[in-house]
């Protein structure tokens, strides 16, 4: 009997040891051992499967494994992790990761800890989505930084409300888009998403939890919005809302003349047209070879429509066909008036006669339109492939030069897989106190041009990266003064040129809010303090 009890006790002890090992992971060689004695240690994972999933991003252009992945239950857990690193003799990088939708390793943390923002529990106050509709006050939503915009949409629509500006893809986190800017077809009217934020909760690089706004801790507020994660982790945002429509009249208008295309786009975003015109304005460029070698139908265009567009390209002998994409929002009781408004706007435009393509969809169907394309790409196994993207803001005065040099020049005989976006925004809807950059040219309008490539082979990756370099070189050689959106630079000199006159202030705020430079090092904006120390010791 005694022997039986001994064996049973040994088995139970062994089981508990295994469980304890799962709850409190083995220390990682590159992290301070004391980290695994902290109260948050049970939420760290160091196993290879977990770290491998956090070793790349949507772009799949860079691979770099973290030492650990952290699964916080609440913002206070993140603050404790950052505080430990910041005051450790050997500070390690910490990178928040929502959907990992960066494209060149910006959300990675080699040698450090990736924070899985999506793991925050739904029960915590900051993890919920709370809509305020107090009488006499402007409605707003408080959303945790880890929340998907798709979930914010669902929560606000229950109150008949919605945020004013949307990115084209809704499976992105609130904190992720606000750390960049958050642009889309509504930005010409309301500015980017960062211009529609009233208040933030931010965890700084010293582990301090700070509530900030335009009137309170304003330097951190403006720094964090568009700040590429350099000054803190956004854990809550208070976002302005408006009445949500029920339906959307959605049109695409085809052009063979880029000058007419840009003229009409600029008219549509002007004060003259925006009051009674489109609620959303974007544009696309389709290279002629893609009509022959690309898909024969899309979620928007039927096979017949694409055949007609291909004939237009062949007949006009142009390098590309351009589309204005616009919408008008309406409700069931305003169907007649939206028909009249649409006709009045179209009468003022110069698209190719007969090349108007219209769809009528619900508001949700329109905002979540890329989801349908995602499903189609996933089914064809071409969603999770490398994405060597290049996003640029081009001054209005140089957009025709850009078209000549890139679409009619570098890309004339190319047919890369992907989408090309090209649409204007009003500069006065952006707040220059925020970190996000726009072209420095003294012009009222600039263009977003997005080369959203998908590399279907290893050769494609090399060729598309080389093409992006040629585009950037063209911009530099011809003095276009473009700015990268979702920027990637390989040197601090590149970053100083990117930020221009803002650089001194940005460096000052970095020293104040992240003095050990532990946050979001994947951007490679600031060298780590550890590297500085090593350099001094070596010297």
UniProtKB/TrEMBL annotation:
EC number: 1.5.99.12
Molecular function terms, GO-annotated: cytokinin dehydrogenase activity; FAD binding
Pfam family of the protein (one): FAD_binding_4
Keyword Transcription set for record: no
Reaction catalysed by this enzyme: N(6)-dimethylallyladenine + A + H2O = 3-methyl-2-butenal + adenine + AH2
Broad enzyme group: oxidoreductase
Limits of the FAD-binding PCMH-type domain: 62-244
Protein known as: cytokinin dehydrogenase
């Amino acid at each position: 009997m005694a022997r039986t009890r001994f064996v049973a006790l040994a088995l139970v002890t062994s089981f508990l040891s295994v469980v304890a090992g799962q709850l409190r992971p083995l220390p990682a060689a590159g992290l301070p051992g004391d980290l695994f004695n902290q109260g948050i240690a049970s939420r760290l994972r160091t196993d290879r499967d977990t770290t491998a999933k956090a070793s790349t991003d949507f772009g799949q252009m860079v691979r770099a494994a973290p030492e650990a992945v952290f699964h916080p239950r609440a913002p206070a857990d993140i603050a404790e992790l950052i505080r430990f690193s910041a005051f450790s003799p050997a500070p390690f990088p910490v990178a928040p990761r929502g959907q990992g939708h960066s494209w060149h390793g910006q959300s990675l943390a080699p040698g450090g800890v990736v924070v899985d923002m999506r793991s925050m529990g739904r029960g915590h106050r900051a993890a919920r989505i709370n809509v305020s509709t107090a009488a006499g006050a402007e409605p707003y939503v408080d959303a945790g930084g880890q929340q998907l915009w798709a979930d914010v949409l669902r929560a606000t629509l229950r109150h008949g409300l919605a945020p004013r500006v949307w990115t084209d893809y809704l499976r992105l986190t609130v904190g992720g888009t606000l750390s960049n800017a958050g642009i889309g077809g509504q930005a010409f009217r309301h500015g980017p998403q960062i211009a529609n934020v009233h208040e933030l909760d931010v965890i700084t690089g010293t582990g301090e939890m700070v509530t900030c706004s335009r009137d309170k801790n304003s330097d951190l507020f403006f720094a964090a919005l568009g700040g590429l994660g350099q000054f803190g982790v956004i854990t809550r945002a208070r976002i302005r809302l408006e009445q949500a429509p029920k339906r959307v009249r959605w049109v695409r208008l085809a052009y063979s003349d880029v000058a007419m295309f840009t003229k009409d786009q600029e008219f549509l975003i002007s004060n003259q047209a925006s009051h009674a015109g489109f609620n959303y304005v974007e544009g696309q460029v389709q290279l002629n070879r893609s009509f022959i070698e690309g898909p024969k139908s899309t979620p928007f265009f039927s096979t017949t429509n694409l055949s007609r567009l291909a004939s237009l390209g062949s007949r006009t002998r142009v390098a590309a066909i351009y589309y204005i994409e616009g919408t008008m929002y309406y409700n069931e009781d305003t169907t007649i008036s939206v028909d009249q408004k649409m006709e009045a706007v179209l009468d003022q435009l110069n698209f190719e006669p007969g090349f108007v393509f219209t769809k009528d969809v619900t508001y949700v169907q329109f905002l979540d339109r890329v989801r349908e394309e995602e499903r189609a790409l996933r089914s064809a196994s071409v969603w999770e492939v490398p994405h060597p993207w290049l996003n640029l803001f081009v001054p209005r005065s140089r957009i025709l030069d850009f078209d000549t040099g890139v679409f009619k020049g570098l890309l004339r005989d190319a047919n890369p897989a992907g989408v090309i976006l090209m649409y204007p925004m009003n500069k006065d809807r952006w707040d220059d106190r925020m970190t996000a950059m726009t072209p420095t040219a003294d012009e009222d309008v600039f263009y977003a041009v997005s080369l959203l490539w998908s590399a279907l082979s290893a050769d494609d990756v090399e060729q598309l990266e080389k093409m992006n370099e040629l585009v950037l070189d063209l911009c530099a050689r011809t003095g276009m003064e473009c700015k990268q959106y979702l920027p990637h630079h390989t040197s601090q000199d590149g970053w100083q040129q990117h930020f221009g006159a803002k650089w001194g202030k940005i460096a000052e705020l970095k020293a104040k809010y992240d003095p050990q430079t532990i946050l979001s090092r994947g951007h490679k904006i600031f060298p780590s303090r550890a590297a500085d120390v090593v350099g001094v010791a070596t010297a």
